[in-house]
Amino acid sequence: MSVSELRRDPVTGRWVVVSTERPRADDFDRTPVVIQPDDSCPFCGGHEHMTPFEVLAYRNGSPSNQPGWDLRVVPNQSPIVRVEGDLDRQGEGLFDKMNGIGAHEVIIESPRHEDTLATQPEAGVERLLRAFQERIQDLRRDIRFKSFLPFKNHGAAAGAHLEHSHSQLFALPIVPREVRDELEGARVHYTAKERCLFCDIVRQELAEGRRVVAENGEAVALAPYASRSPFETWVLPRRHHSRFEDAPGGEVAAVARLLRDVLRRMDAALERPPYSFVIHSAPVSEPADFYHWHIELLPKVTRFGAFEWATGFHRNPTPPETAAKVLRETNGA
Amino acid sequence: MSVSELRRDPVTGRWVVVSTERPRADDFDRTPVVIQPDDSCPFCGGHEHMTPFEVLAYRNGSPSNQPGWDLRVVPNQSPIVRVEGDLDRQGEGLFDKMNGIGAHEVIIESPRHEDTLATQPEAGVERLLRAFQERIQDLRRDIRFKSFLPFKNHGAAAGAHLEHSHSQLFALPIVPREVRDELEGARVHYTAKERCLFCDIVRQELAEGRRVVAENGEAVALAPYASRSPFETWVLPRRHHSRFEDAPGGEVAAVARLLRDVLRRMDAALERPPYSFVIHSAPVSEPADFYHWHIELLPKVTRFGAFEWATGFHRNPTPPETAAKVLRETNGA
Predict the structure, then answer these.
(1) What is the ipTM of this complex?
(2) Nearest to B177 among A2, A14, A157 (CB)
(3) How distant is the Cα of A268 from the closest Cα of chain B, in angstroms?
(4) Residue B206 to residue B213: CA distance in whole angstroms
(5) pTM of the model
């Protein structure tokens, strides 16, 4: 094998240079996520008055906006898009714009400041995915919204502003470019083969085995062939569903168990790395039966500059086969 | 105006949320670039033996790989792609790969450790652009290469591994996704209008004025309408040329003067920010007369997570009109 390999992601067509040489120490930037106690944390149990009113909560019979909950969803206090108003689409010569209409919600995953998704009991991740589903099912009745982005940034280096474990949900009147590119890749494959591209990827990866991180009866975790960065991991349900919010409860529970398993393996193998994940799902605004919802998880263990961003050309110093082997052999239990 | 606006980039179609509210302090992450003295810097004059042999140098008659130069180009000591070998394109089921063939060169912009592009005399930036052109003209005789990426990362936060001012050049057997998307956007516009999209953007921006940062007889610096991050700036030649490496000397000199002017304004207004820039140019592998070469410059003044990366959906807390006004009114002289 050559010292490096150019690999093409079959979904988006992006090229990645995967190094097969020993990586250089200065490729990496490791800052373990350490959660500091914070008496004034607005997300802690007992501080419900410090957040906007909740739009959803899982509670043991206690009244709204009071203690006694496992998970709360509240509007973001500094939203970057707002529900009120008209889209007011306009052209400005060559340019297109509309008002920043949308929903921007925060899912507080636990009343306990020190919890993380990885350290919470199994029910924690399942609750989070279920809350995402419930909120999307509610928000999609608003026909202005075309796509939903459920995601989490964990740790300041991954873009989190508060340390208390939380996720976020955007409802947007547009379809982001990455989603559009994935849809297009999946559509082209479906048109040519009459098969789902993601189903094909899962089938090939399970047969091949080298990039499988973990699996259970209903879900598979993979290091994707053209991983953009070290330890990138996708969690895919085995069954074909285009939209996350319509996935059946048993499947979501299985994906949640596997996601937690992967996060625990990463905490052990990579020393509690900052990470982001995004749930990729077909937009509500168009038929997209050929798409297959999944989660893309990117631990942040390298520095990356605007170069990657400005070119869409990525360099990954850790082959996904190596990353998958490390995680597969790590005991995250 | 609403609190935020969704804007669409006319070239790539990506959507950006531009906030029009006062930004929050924690949106920003400002780490001025400070260059520390380093006696063992391999890029300093007198240390020519610490680099691979030069492939190009601008010197005052002195012999190769000796002191007496203004700029040197050397192969990267730890290249991520290599010139030797065959592409050996292969499929692996659904996946596509080839060997990591390419060139990866480093342009050392000055023998003096403390110089930056902004603080060097005017000739410095022009020398850099001219060296990029010369190296591409040489490398493009190798028909394995489809595209060239001339770029610079300045400061560790922008991905630079060494502090001594340098740029990099990739020659690649693929066309990166961002370049492909820009080509497609420019092609669609040209097909519909029989006009270059970038020429149209320059014309509209000069007429409108609010996003113009600076200009001279042959080039224009703009804060793009759908800026991805605060103070993103594009430098475009007024004249239409699809390929940077074929641009005439006078035009390159004018672009160089304007780029330096913008970098000096950023140093003054943003306190010597880390930054990256990439020269966007049509691939050599295909006719692309409809494309218009330009430079995209991104100062790194915000944190950004994998979220932006994973979705192609960006949030920019500084409207480009504000950024352009700040830079326009800054004395970078």
Answers:
(1) 0.91
(2) A14
(3) 21
(4) 10
(5) 0.94
